């Protein structure tokens, strides 16, 4: 008995298998090319880069709230707090810093007149929106104000007031590779009243 030692259907199986493998290879190459084009165009970001951006946004939003809500008589130079203005301003866009500089006078007056101090604590921060060079972070925390126990001894023992909690929405923009605060607003529950820290 002579003939091919492989079964008659073996040749057909190899041809079908080769066709399936070729089709899978073509699909993989097309998918790879599409992802490359989308990534290059910015439509799809690298997961690691997105996570780095999220962490940078959260860190900057935390820093902003800590710096904004921590000040006191030890920062006074005359009737202003230049170091306070500078450290808070470092994490802001120039546009928002101009607005801050106009409003900081009220905080400085409470420090000058009442020797009021304030210390902030941040409980949590998260990113609610991240789109290219714009981001929104939500920050929750509290600040504790204090004042001199005896008005005649402004540098003597101090009294702490009950902590005031805050929840704020912080808007950030990426400027020259750095996330900077561009605005912020309090986040209030329905029926809740309050003011921004």
SSE layout:
Layout: H1 10-41, H2 47-68, H3 82-89, H4 94-114, E1 117-131, E2 134-148, E3 158-160, E4 164-175, E5 178-186
Antiparallel strand pairs: 1-2, 2-3, 2-4, 4-5
Keywords summarizing the entry:
alpha+beta, 197 residues, 2 domains, Nuclear Transport Factor 2, Chain: A, membrane, 42% helix
CATH topology annotation of the largest domain: Nuclear Transport Factor 2, Chain: A
What is the tally of beta strands? Answer: 5
CATH architecture of the largest domain: Roll
Alpha-beta classification? alpha+beta
Measured as a percent range, the helix fraction is 40-55%
Q: How would you spell out the order of helices and strands?
A: HHHHEEEEE
Instruction: Tally the structural domains.
Output: 2
**Ends distance:** 96 Å
Q: Which consecutive residue ranges, at least 5 long each, have pLDDT under 50?
A: none
Give the helix tally: 4
Task: Report Rg.
Answer: 30 Å
Overall pLDDT confidence: 84
What characteristic shape results from the CA principal axes?
A: elongated
Name of the top-level CATH class of the largest domain:
Alpha Beta
Largest sheet: 5 strands, antiparallel
User: What share of the residues does DSSP label as strand, in percent?
Assistant: 25-35%
Describe the structure.
- This protein has 197 residues and is an alpha+beta fold.
- The chain has helices at 10-41, 47-68, 82-89, 94-114, and strands at 117-131, 134-148, 158-160, 164-175, 178-186.
- The protein has two domains: 8-39; 70-192, Nuclear Transport Factor 2, Chain: A (Roll).
- Helices cover 42% and strands 27% of the residues.
- Strands 1, 2, 3, 4 and 5 form a five-stranded antiparallel sheet that branches.
- It starts with 9 loop residues before the first helix and ends in an 11-residue tail after the last strand.
- The model has no long low-confidence stretch (mean pLDDT 84).
């Amino acid at each position: 008995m002579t003939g091919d030692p492989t079964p008659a259907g073996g040749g057909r199986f190899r041809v079908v298998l080769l066709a399936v493998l070729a089709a899978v290879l073509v699909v993989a190459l097309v998918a790879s090319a599409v992802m490359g084009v989308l990534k290059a165009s910015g439509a799809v970001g690298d997961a690691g880069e997105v996570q780095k951006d999220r962490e940078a946004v959260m860190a900057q939003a935390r820093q902003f709230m800590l710096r904004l809500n921590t000040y006191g008589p030890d920062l006074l130079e005359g009737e202003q707090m230049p170091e306070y203005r500078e450290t808070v301003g470092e994490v802001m866009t120039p546009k928002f810093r101009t607005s801050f500089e106009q409003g900081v006078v009220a905080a400085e007056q409470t420090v000058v007149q009442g020797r009021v101090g304030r210390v902030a604590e941040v409980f949590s921060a998260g990113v609610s929106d991240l789109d290219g060079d714009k981001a929104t972070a939500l920050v929750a925390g509290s600040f504790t104000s204090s004042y001199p126990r005896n008005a005649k001894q402004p540098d003597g023992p101090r009294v702490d007031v009950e902590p005031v909690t805050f929840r704020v929405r912080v808007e950030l923009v990426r400027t020259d590779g750095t996330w900077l605060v561009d605005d912020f607003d309090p986040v209030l529950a329905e029926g809740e009243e309050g003011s921004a820290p």
